[in-house]
Structure formats: C-alpha cells, structure tokens
Design a protein that fits this description.
The protein is mainly β. It has three domains: 99 residues, no CATH class; 150 residues, no CATH class; 129 residues, Flagellar hook protein FlgE (Tick-borne Encephalitis virus Glycoprotein, domain 1, Sandwich), CATH 2.60.98. The protein is 14% helix and 36% strand. It has two helices and 28 strands. The strands form seven sheets. Strands 5, 6, 9, 10, 21, 22, 23, 24, 25 and 26 form a ten-stranded antiparallel β-sheet that branches. Strands 12, 13, 14, 15, 16 and 17 form a six-stranded antiparallel β-sheet that branches. Strands 18-19-11-20 form a four-stranded mixed β-sheet, with no helix packed on it. The two termini are 23 Å apart. The model has no long low-confidence stretch (mean pLDDT 92).
Length: 400
C-alpha cells in the first residue's frame, strides 16, 4: 500500500512541475493565462480512515489581467478588463486575449493563424448592427471628394477706410477695391480652385460691395452689403449670398456656392480675417487606421476625412475556466463555459481596448519559481517514502 500511495504522490508532484514548467515557458507569450494544478485526496470504502493517495482534480486557468505592453503597430490591441476577441477560423468562432493583428493580402485583419477579427458592421448612420458579425476588412479605395457648397467668412471691414481712388472695379487694379481675401474651394471632382473676394467701400456709410472671382473669372456681379451704426450686418438677410453657378471647365459639375457673411462686422479697427472656412474637400488616400477605446475602427484619409469600418466584437462567458483550450492562445466555447455573451468594449462588464498595445502573459515568474521548489520537494519526499517502504519490506522478508 505505501508504494501505491507514494507513487500517486510522485505523479501529482510531476504534474505540478509540468504545469509550472508550462507557465514558465509561456512567460513571454502575449495573452497567455497561467494555469494552476488542483489536487484531491483519494479514499476507498472500508479503508479505515487511511487514504489511498492523491489525484489531479483539475488544472484551472487563471484569467487575471496581464500587463499592457505598448507597441508600434496600430492594429495591436489589448483588452483592459474582461472579454475576449472574437475570431473567425474558416467560419468557426474562436476566442483569444492575444491581440497581435495584421493585414492579409486581401485586406482582412487577421492574427498569425489567419483567423479574422470580427466586428459589428456600420449602418451608415453612425451606429452599428450589433445583431450581425462580419470580418474586419480595411478599405483600399480613395475617399470621394465633395464639392464646396458653403463658404463662411468672419471678417471685419474697416469703418474708417478711404474710398477707392478708381471708381471702376478691376481685380487687377488695387486702387479699385478696399480689401481682398482668398481661399481654396473644390469642385465635384475634388480639383482645387482659388476663390477670391474683393471688398469695395461705398460712398454711403455702412455700404460695401463684394465681388467673387474663381480662378480669375468673375462669378456674378457686385453683391451689396449693409452694416448698421453698431457695425453689424443688416443686409443681405441672414448674411447669405447665393452666387450663380460656375463651370470649372474640367468635366466637373457646375459649382454652386453660397457665401455666409452673417458674422462679418464693420468696426473702427483694421481689416481682419478672423475665420475663413468651406465645406468641400479633395479626394483622399488611406493614411492610417485608428481604433478608439470603445473599439470603433476608423479609416483616416489624407483629405482629413475618416470613415467608420466597424466596431470590434468582444465576447465573455459565464464560466471562462470552462473554455476549451486550442493552443496558440485560443479558446473555444464548451458546455462548461456556457454560451458566449457578445458586447462592445466599455459596455456592461466588458473592458476597454488599447490600440498599439498587447496584453502580456499574466505569469508571475517569482511565484512560479517558488511553486517549482515546492513541487520538487514534494517529489523528493514521495521518492523517499518509496525508499523507506522498500527498506521496511526488505526487513520483513529477511526475518527468519
């Protein structure tokens, strides 16, 4: 009997050493979760209170948070809190805490096993379809241009300015206008054009004319402005000037501009341009991919625009320790784990995402070294027990 009991102790100590060795071996594995061997004593009926040794009850994984290591890869993701990344492995869903992602030849975001990261697709209205999962695929098309439709100017026209010496307006003659300012506008093809605005002070106090030219071509005639004695614009109503259509003659649609001068003033100070904005932009190429803490994936373009590509799907389980290990820092759902609970980063019990970072292994190397020493001593003690039992047996055999 002592031989069998001591042998079970040797097996238990050996298993404990194997678990510790696996933890130590994966101390640098991103997203790795350490394991702990749990043992139970063995009793048989009628053994009069003497046990039959020990057995492995279970090997449980410890899902405590690992440290966050920052990287230079924008597609590296770390979860700070609960949850797992959801991946598609040829249609089967697997789960991981290792967020080292890249892009394959088709533009899909994948890990080293070519498993595709799952997202909620955008609806086009600023929300996401949380009832559907799809592969995250980076866009390779250019961002479409937008023609300028509205120009907003916040300028101050000097109340004390002198009248132009040349009463006949000529954009080439600075003596025929008081001040001017320019900005870039865009047509429907995204081509840039220079739009210039010439301000001409009138003989009547508070009266001004503004002339608009695009690429040196007049767009309509003079548009009258009128300011009150307090220096505020009174006409046109609302400060809006609708210009006639301008054909850029490059195949683009005619440009229809509205100039908003509602915030312009006529004060006693010098001429000043406080704000000059327009709502058009050129075509843009993909510049970068950004992922915010809530998991929204943005494609940012060189024209300053951004497009939402989707929202990273996180999954959790009623019993994470029941997940079936697949290797490569992956798990799959099992009966013991319960059904997957899907959600979004930062909501309910799900953690936040950190882009450009990876979650390190949660192995505590110092603790593992202590466990190794303990398991080693347990192994030695059980081996000594076998040696002692052998000596006792030999003594009994030698009795004459």
């Amino acid at each position: 009997m002592p031989f069998r009991i001591a042998l079970s102790g040797l097996n238990a100590a050996s298993a404990d050493l194997s678990v510790t060795a696996n933890n130590v071996a994966n101390v640098s594995t991103a997203g790795f979760k350490s394991s702990r061997a749990q043992f139970a004593d063995v009793f048989s009926i009628g053994a009069q209170g003497i046990g039959n040794g020990v057995r492995i009850a279970s090997v449980n994984q410890q899902f405590e948070q690992g440290g966050i290591d920052f990287t230079d890869n924008a597609l590296d993701l770390a979860i700070s809190g609960q949850g797992f990344f959801t991946l598609s492995d040829n249609g089967s869903l697997v789960y991981t805490r290792a967020g080292a992602f890249g892009v394959d030849r088709e533009g899909f975001v994948v890990n080293s096993k070519n498993q595709r990261l799952q997202i909620y697709p955008p609806t086009g209205t600023g929300t996401f379809n949380t009832g559907s999962l799809t592969d995250l695929r980076l866009t390779t098309t250019d961002s479409a241009p937008q023609a300028t439709g509205l120009v907003e100017m916040t300028v101050n026209l000097p109340a004390g300015a002198a009248l132009p010496t040349n009463p006949v307006f000529d954009p080439l003659d600075p003596s025929s206008f008081t001040q001017s300012t320019s900005m870039t506008v865009y047509d429907s093809l995204g081509s840039a054009h220079t739009s210039t605005y010439y301000f001409v002070k009138g003989a009547v106090p508070g009266a001004w004319d503004v002339h608009t030219y695009i690429d040196g071509n007049a767009v309509g005639g003079a548009n009258a402005l009128s300011y009150t004695s307090a220096g505020l614009l009174s006409a046109p109503a609302g400060g809006l000037i609708t210009l006639p259509a301008y054909d850029p003659a490059n195949g683009a649609a005619p440009m229809n501009l509205t100039v908003d001068l509602g915030d312009s003033t006529q004060f006693g100070g010098p001429f000043g341009v406080n704000a000059l904005t327009q709502d058009g932009y050129a075509a843009g190429r993909l510049a970068s991919i950004d992922i915010n803490p809530e998991g929204v994936v943005f494609a940012r373009f060189t024209n300053g625009r951004s497009t939402e590509l989707g929202k990273v799907v996180l999954s959790n389980f009623p019993n994470p320790q029941g997940l079936r290990q697949l290797g490569d820092s992956n798990w799959s759902e099992s009966f013991s784990s319960g059904d997957a609970i899907r959600g979004e980063a930062g909501s309910a019990s799900f953690g936040l995402l950190q882009a450009g970072a990876l979650e390190a292994s949660n192995v505590d190397l110092t603790e593992e070294l202590v466990n190794m020493i303990t398991a080693q001593r347990n192994f030695q003690a059980n081996a000594q027990m076998i040696s002692t039992a052998d000596s006792v047996t030999q003594t009994i055999i030698n009795i004459r």
